[in-house]
Write a structure and sequence with these properties.
single chain; 285 residues; alpha+beta; eight-stranded antiparallel β-sheet; 11 helices
């Protein structure tokens, strides 16, 4: 099962309603596959489906948007299929899937897949148009090959290393357990799981689902992303955080004076623009 996975879509035309186009295509595709669209965030809870695809379309981040889905197998498989179909045509000619499968300790568990016009493409060449200034194709190849042989001594090129966020540079050079734990704590903080109410220990339960970027798979994904013009905070796109912040934002939009439970504000602060995200849910059964 995918531990963490998001689909990133670059676009060139700033004048297009990119978010709406992506959401409309998702809805049409899910309907065509026999799913019933539903809104789990409405005033009255809707039907619970035993089989469901759950994704959010992010607001534009520079010249990228993302489709962030739940980590369940059905939502993950759907993202792969969608990259090959509805996101295989303009204005989404390129689709980049970044993720990690279990066990994340294996470098082969890094998910770095690219499709161009719906066809699988070699990331070493397909991602060249999206390199950051100063990053070369050789830097990209170096990042993609990080720990590919399983050797923990293999390092990221100096150029790529300078592109990594400060809290990850140490992890790229070698394992610093204290720094790693700080990073994981920050990534998993505020994951409260409040959709439909959550137990008091929900944060502790959900911490185990946070991606560990100190693993071999995590390093490869982070090093590759550091070469690209992806938004700086791409790796913080967590489905649970987005879902919880969106649910709370919808609730307080309807009832501004509703009482706030412990943890509500932290969840809202984690994704302050939650209502700019577009949920697309489809269920079967």
């Amino acid at each position: 099962m995918a531990r963490w996975c998001s689909l990133f879509l670059p676009f060139a035309d700033d004048t297009l309603p990119i978010e709406q186009i992506a959401a409309d295509r998702l809805r049409e595709s899910l309907t065509a596959m026999g799913y019933t669209l539903y809104d789990p965030f409405g005033l009255i809870p809707g039907r619970a489906y035993p089989s469901a695809i759950k994704v959010f379309v992010t607001p534009r981040m520079g010249n990228w948007i993302a489709v962030v889905g739940a980590s369940d197998e059905e939502s993950f498989t759907a993202k792969v299929g969608l990259a090959q179909t509805i996101f295989g045509a303009e204005p989404f000619s390129t689709a980049l899937l970044l993720g990690m499968e279990e066990p994340t300790s294996s470098p082969d568990s890094a998910l770095i897949e690219v499709w161009e016009y719906g066809e699988p493409a070699d990331p070493r060449t397909a991602l060249i148009p999206y390199l950051k200034p100063g990053v070369t194709p050789d830097d990209l190849a170096s990042a993609l090959a990080l720990n590919e042989s399983g050797s923990p001594e293999m390092s990221i090129s100096p150029t790529v290393l300078t592109m990594l966020p400060e809290d990850v540079k140490t992890l790229a050079e070698g394992v610093d357990e204290e720094q790693a734990q700080k990073l994981i704590k920050r990534l998993s903080a505020n994951v409260m799981g409040k959709l439909g109410g959550a137990p008091a220990n929900a944060a502790d339960v959900l911490k185990s689902s946070a991606p560990d970027w100190n693993t071999a798979a995590g390093k490869r994904v982070r090093a590759t992303a550091a070469c690209l013009t992806l938004p700086e905070a791409w790796y913080t796109l967590d489905f649970l955080e987005i879902r919880d912040a969106y649910a709370l934002s919808r609730r307080f939009q309807r009832f501004p004076n509703a009482a706030r439970l412990p943890g509500d504000q932290a969840a809202l602060d984690a994704v302050p623009n939650a209502l700019d995200y577009t949920p697309v849910y489809g269920g079967k059964g």
